[in-house]
């Protein structure tokens, strides 16, 4: 009897494994304890599914290319090296998730929660992160080239050496974030808050910082060549060694700023 039950369980596991295939429908499913390491879930529907760390699910190296993850719970999940290219985790919870080296190129993460997530070296090129929360997230060396971060929260995030070339950060909160050595060339930061942010050695060449707040920020040695700082607040900012060649400072506030 015990042998029969063992075989039934084995068959059930095998059947489950076969179900986790390309284009599978797993909407609202609970994948508690499932091992999906290296699996292919390309184009799968995982809307509302639970894949949290607590559930024991492992998604390291998994392919979720083009998958639907709308409203899915991936809190604390391990997605190291996973491919989420073109996926749609709109409104999903990825709080505290590990996405180190993951590919999220062109992914839709609008309104998603990535608070405290690790995205070190991840590719978010062209991704939509409008209104997303990346508070305290680690994005060191990540690629956010051409990404949309309009209204997103990057408060206290680490973006050291990250590429945000041509990215849209209009109205975003980057308060207290570390952007040391980051590339923001041609980026739109109109109305963004960079209060207390570290921009040492960062490239903001041709960037739009119209109406932005850089109060107490440290763009020491940064390149602001050709940047628009019209109406921006640079109160108490450290601009020592910064390049402002061709920059527009019309109506900007430089009270207490350090320029030497």
Task: Output the keywords.
little secondary structure; Pectate Lyase C-like; 2 domains; 260 residues
Q: TL;DR?
A:
With 260 residues, the chain is mostly loops. Helix content is 7%, strand content 0%.
3D architecture notes:
- The protein is low in regular secondary structure and 260 residues long.
- The radius of gyration is 21 Å and the shape is elongated.
- It starts with a helix and ends in a 241-residue tail after the last helix.
- It has one helix spanning 2-19.
- It has two domains: 24-87, E3 ubiquitin-protein ligase SopA (Pectate Lyase C-like); 134-260, 3 Solenoid (Pectate Lyase C-like), CATH 2.160.20.
Number of strands: 0
Task: Give the rounded overall mean pLDDT.
Answer: 86
How far apart the termini lie comes to: 83 Å
H/E order of the elements? H
Give the C-level CATH assignment of the largest domain.
Mainly Beta
Task: Quickly give the structural class.
Answer: little secondary structure
Number of helices: 1
Into which percentage range does the β-strand content fall?
under 5%
Q: What is the overall silhouette?
A: elongated
The CATH superfamily of the largest domain is E3 ubiquitin-protein ligase SopA
CATH architecture annotation name of the largest domain? 3 Solenoid
User: Which spans of ≥5 residues are poorly predicted at pLDDT below 50?
Assistant: 1-21
- The name of the CATH topology of the largest domain is Pectate Lyase C-like
Supply the number of structural domains.
2
Provide the helix percentage: under 10%
Q: Sheet with the most strands?
A: none
């Amino acid at each position: 009897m015990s042998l029969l039950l063992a075989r039934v369980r084995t068959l059930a596991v095998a059947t489950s494994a076969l179900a986790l295939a390309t284009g599978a429908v797993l909407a609202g499913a609970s994948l508690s304890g499932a091992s999906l390491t290296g699996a292919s879930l390309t184009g799968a529907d995982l809307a509302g599914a639970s894949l949290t760390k607590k559930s024991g699910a492992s998604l390291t190296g998994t392919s979720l290319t083009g998958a639907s993850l709308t409203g899915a719970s991936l809190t604390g999940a391990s997605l190291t090296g996973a491919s989420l290219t073109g996926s749609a985790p709109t409104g999903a919870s990825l709080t505290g998730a590990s996405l180190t080296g993951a590919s999220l190129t062109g992914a839709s993460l609008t309104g998603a929660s990535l608070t405290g997530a690790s995205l070190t070296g991840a590719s978010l090129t062209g991704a939509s992160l409008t209104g997303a929360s990346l508070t305290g997230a680690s994005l060191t060396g990540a690629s956010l080239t051409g990404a949309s971060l309009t209204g997103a929260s990057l408060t206290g995030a680490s973006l050291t050496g990250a590429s945000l070339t041509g990215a849209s950060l209009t109205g975003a909160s980057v308060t207290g974030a570390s952007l040391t050595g980051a590339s923001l060339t041609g980026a739109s930061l109109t109305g963004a808050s960079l209060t207390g942010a570290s921009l040492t050695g960062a490239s903001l060449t041709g960037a739009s910082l119209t109406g932005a707040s850089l109060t107490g920020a440290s763009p020491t040695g940064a390149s602001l060549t050709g940047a628009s700082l019209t109406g921006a607040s640079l109160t108490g900012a450290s601009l020592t060694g910064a390049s402002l060649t061709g920059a527009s400072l019309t109506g900007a506030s430089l009270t207490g700023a350090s320029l030497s």
